[in-house]
Every structure is written in structure tokens, then in C-alpha cells.
Specification:
Elements lengths: L2 E6 L4 H12 L6 E6 L6 E6 L2 H8 L8 E7 L14 E2 L5 E9 L2 H10 L10 H14 L4 H10 L3 E9 L6 E6 L4 E4 L4 E4 L11 E4 L4 E5 L4 E4 L11 E2 L15 H7 L1 H9 L18 H5 L3 E6 L1 H18 L3 E5 H4 L10 E7 L5 H12 L3 E6 L5 H5 L2 E4 L12 H21 L4 H12 L1 H10 L2 H9 L5 E6 L3 H16 L2 E6 L16 E6 L8 H12 L4 E7 L9 E5 L7 H19 L18
The chain binds 5-amino-5-deoxy-1-O-phosphono-D-mannitol.
Length: about 600
Amino acid sequence: MCGIVGYTGRHSATEHLIEGLRRLEYRGYDSAGIALGTPKKLFVEKRAGKLINLENSLGKAIPDAHSGIGHTRWATHGGPSDKNAHPHCDNEGKLAVIHNGIIENYAELRSDLESRGHTFDSETDTESVAHLLSELHKGHKGDLASAMREAVALLRGSFTLLAIHSDNPEVIVGVRRNSPLVVGLGEGENFLASDVSAFIEYTKRAVALGQDEVVTITPSSVSITDLKGRDLAFKEYEITWDSKAAEKGGFTHFMLKEIFEQPKAIADTLLGRLGDKNQIVLDELHLTKEEIKGLAKIVVLACGTAYHAGLVAKYAIEKWAKIPVEVELASEFRYRDPIIDKQTLVIAISQSGETMDTLMALRYAKAQGARVLAVCNTNSSTIPRESDAVLYTHAGPEIAVASTKAFLTQLIAVYVIGLYLAQVRGVMSGDDIRKIFNEMDELPAKVEQILETVEPLRELTRSFSQSTSVLFLGRHIGFPVALEGALKLKELAYMHAEGFAGGELKHGPIALIEEGTPVIAILPFGHEYSLDEKMLSNIQEVKARGAKVIVIAQEDIVVQGADHVIRIPGAPALLQAVLATVPLQVFAYEMAIARGNDVDQPRNLAKSVTVE
Ligand code: M6R
């Protein structure tokens, strides 16, 4: 969603802001703008569409400024247009604001402000804040941070806000409530941004801003207060991601690069998980043996792809650790009356660590007494910071909107959790646990093997590029994999795609099959659950109705009746979720290319969904 960047220092603000916005493009946006800290009146330029539109309209006549704020907007209130793009200014053009989130009481604020003579230029919720802050700024004798603290007390909703004023242009003030904001600490320059990728090229030192904290940066100082104006001490951390990791590195798209990074991402996430006594190591959980034995159930909360990882978690944890697992869409969880208590372990899975639905659900769970373990890929993001414990996945920065390597590492994380709980509860032998872990250790090489043989899949995909609908069928862990395959295809190819449990086929979905409908059947689990025969029957059923069937099957399964078979290496059934997903990622990627879509920034989507 919206990307925010603020810069104050010695260098060209325009260059730093545009570069920061470029690195935040992956979040998804439909317009972009900057405000430069020029005296008397701010210089503001904003344009609907891609960043290039803004750059073109900036041309060469850019004032020499050393501070400013920049924004990529993902429209909520008011369509994508030049006027609705951020920054938004007061009527004198002296104060500018950028915003990520939603101001719920903007209509009230707007009508109050209009009644006091403010004139509005846009349909956005954000513009009310610019006018409000401008009034308060006068009342606070030009102290922008004090004005911001008072403004926040009048706002409802979720927001990260940055503001700049031409009276004191080297000062940038920011605040966050439920939306992310990080500070980058430089030498003679400082940054504010939605995430560290905006400034990673200039500094590796960062501070994560807490809830309801107000930050003021100048080229030589950073100060943070609470909403009462009391100074807060802050802790900096080092960003371990390399700035190169956020570049394409010779690949045509971030998504393709990230697909090919999966073997390493899995290996990195597994690193250190097997101890010297051949035991699973998960010290991060911070639960005693008694607490683990006393767990009544586990509730997994997540959205989108992370939710699919949660579904796989259910199969793995119930089988290995013998604890009941419920998996819930985070957006639904707190709007019913879920039964959770101190004996419930909640696992919140999120690549970004900023997904609003997951954050709100975990807060709700914590308030009910549950203990929360985050599975997250982004260091110091909000979800891990608000959880009791965190297991970081080591996928590195995931830039493409469509999640790939983060998903596979989430699967690894939930397998590790399942084996660890089984070990502590004593419900699996050490030998069995080790055996599975050793099989997990082989996954990077097996994913590599799949990636070396995807060429025929590329051509095959293109032959289906004119289809209107693609169905995915799976049983057991093949079912969440089918859901994930369908989600990837929707996101990237903008095609109707649905995943079904094979057993459900005859309960309705089979009516969708027409002559030539592509059906992808996921059949990875060998004979372990005697489900291959059942899936083969499903294949015959759809074939008999004209479907074109592509089967993803483990090497040793005899497949009859398919139009195409994509082979994946053998592995225990539960671990096959990792392997069976990879061809589906490639399928969706190739389909997007064949249909001429924007792979890394699919239409209407945002990488990090920071509003409910
Ligand atoms: O950052 P999160 O893992 O919390 O994000 C959850 C979903 O928004 C995300 O997985 C989304 O579904 C992806 N675009 C899927 O590719």
C-alpha cells in the first residue's frame, strides 16, 4: 500500500526521494508525488500513474532542496488522479502532509474545517489532516511536532503521517498508529520511510517507531516522543539485508528472481534448527515444557498466501504434535466470538509483519489471554514486535507483490514448529523427527532440480494463455497448494482461477468444466495416504467432461489420462507442499508474461496491506 519517504540532509532531496519511492514501488501504487522543503512556499509535484509520470513532469526545473517528503499512493478515498495524489497542502502551500492508512473521521473534520474557511482540492481523507495541522501549527507557534501530537488526538483510524513546513524546511515530523514507519539514521542526514528498503542504500542503521509515537528528524538529530510530548529513548538496529537483495540482479522481474532464490531461502530458514544432539532448536518460542504440554489448541491467523501456509501447518502440526489446530483468515477472526484462552497458542504468519488484519487479530487474541508466536520475514516490523515470540523466516526482502519465497519459508517455519512441539510433548521419537528434518534439508536441492526443468512448463503455460478460467484440484496438502496456485494465477494473470479439494469436485465445481477448461491436478503425495487413486479418479471425471488436465505428480506415481504431467522429486507427503508449489509459481509467472501483465506490480494489488 502507500509508500512513504522523508529525507533531510546535505544531498539532493529530489534524488533521495525519487530513489526511495522507486524502492517502495513494489508495495503497489497508482500515483506518486513529492514536496520539497523550499522556503516561503513548498515545491509540490504529483502525478497519477507510475513514478515515471512524476519524473517526467518534474523535468529539469527542480529547486535545489535538501529536505522533503515523497509518496506513492494506493487509492482508498478518491480515485487515482493528480489531485488526489499526495502530498496534500494547506491553503497557503506552506505545509504538506503524506499519509498511509485511513482517517475514519475525515468527513467531520472536513466540514468543520470548511466552515472555518479552508478550501479543499481533493476527495481524499488525507487533505483534512493538512488543513487541521496547518491551523494547529499556528496555535503551537510553529512547533510542528506539538501540532502533530494535538492533531493525532483528533484523528480516528490508522495512519502513518509525515509533515513538512516551509518555515522550518529541514524539519520533518512523523507519527504512526497501526501503520508502519521506520527511521533511517545517517551521517548528517536522516530518513523516514514505510520500510527500510527506501533508504537501505544510504544507511543500515534503523529505528522502528512504536505505536502512537511522534518522531522529529533534522539533518543532525532524531527525537521521539509519546503523544504527551514526553521524550522516549529508542533502540537502533542494524539492517542485515543487502541493498543488492532489493535489486533484480539480472532477472527480468523480481518475481522470477525470488522464485530462483527459493533454495537458498529454505536453506537459510533451516539453518541452526537442528542442534548438536540432533534435536530441533526453537528457543525463540519461550514456552516451558509444561506450557507446551498444556496447550489445548493452536490457532493460526493469516491472510492470502500466508493463510495457505497456515492450512499446511494444520496438516503438519496435528499429525506430528497431536495438537488441534484451527486456521482462520485474520480478517474474520475478531468479528466472531472465537474461543481462545491462556492454553491457546496463536501463530500469526505474515511476510511483511504489517498486514493490518493479522495485526488486529493478534491484538484481539492477546487480549483474550492467548500467547502469540509470529512467523515473519521482516525484522522489527509491527507483528513480531507485538507478539510474545517470533520465528523469523530468512527469505530476504520479497519485492514482487506475488509472494513466492516467503511462502516456501513459511512452510519450513511451520514444519519446524510442528516438529519442535512433537519433540517437547514426546509424541514422536527422536529418530522420526530427525528423519523428517533430514528430508527437509534436502528440499533446497529438490527445488533447484524443479527449477532446472521448468522450460517445458513455460511453453505449456503459453498454450493456455487465452483460457478464461483455470481450476486447481488437490487433496490433503495438495488442497492448500491448489488454493495457492489459484491465488497466484488470479493475482498475476487476472484470470478466473479457483482451487478445490478433489473430494468436493462432484459437490458442485465440476459444473464449471467445459470443453478445453484447463485443470491443474496436484498429486504429490505418493501412496502415503492412498489418495493418488482418488485424485486419478478426479482426473478421469474432469477429462470425461472435456477438461485439459495438467498433473503435478511425484516421480513414482503412474498417471493415466493426463494431457501433460509435470514431475517433481519425491519427499514425504507433508513436505511435498514445498515442491508442488514451485511449478504453480512458474505457471502463474509465465501466464502473466503471456498476457502482457505487469508481473511485479499487478493491477490493484499492494504488497503490504496496511488497511483493513
Ligand atoms: O505480508 P503478509 O504475509 O501478511 O501478506 C498477506 C497477504 O497480503 C499476501 O500473502 C498476499 O496474498 C500476496 N500478494 C499473495 O501473493
